[in-house]
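Weekly puzzle thread! Below is a chain. First person to post its structure in token form gets bragging rights.
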Amino acid sequence: MKFLPRLVSCAAAAAALLTTSCRSTVRETTTSEITGARLNAKSAVYVGIPANAPGRKGPVLNSGQKAAELVRDAFGKCARQAWIGRKMEVFDDALETARNIRAQFLVYPTLIRWEDRATGWNGLPDKAEIKIQIADCATGDIIHSSIIKATGPTMSSGDETPAEILIEPVSKYAASLFQKVHTPTALPKSSRP
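Winning reply:
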């Protein structure tokens, strides 16, 4: 009977460990509030491809492209159009490209951290940290900036990538920036097109 309380407490600790280690964690740091023009569902955005993330043995191959694709997909759900660059660009070059294709906003991701680990084997979680800047193409002013940090689960049956752990927080971030466009009408809801 002395072992029963210990067994129960060990089982509770194991359950707590499993439920917390099977989830991703996300932190967002907003570095500026929205100023100037605001994004809406009629906006067209251009996503620049940033430099690859720094890694222990040099830049992490294709991380810039993958980050730009996930940012484009997130903003594409909210904007009228979302384009992505064809090559890596620094911020100023991406702004020029955005102006040339007549986008209203530039969305420029910068990779701070991109660690793709064999979590299933070693228990070390994937980590990603991305800074997203939104610039008004007309003025070149940055209207919003945020840093999103994500850590994958420590116990995982699949092999999530840094891009996969960023999909949900980047999508939520993008959706939070858009204003709903409301066209006033006298028609009842059932008669609206």
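Puzzle host: Confirmed. Bonus trivia for everyone else. The CA atoms of residues 14 and 186 lie 59 Å apart.
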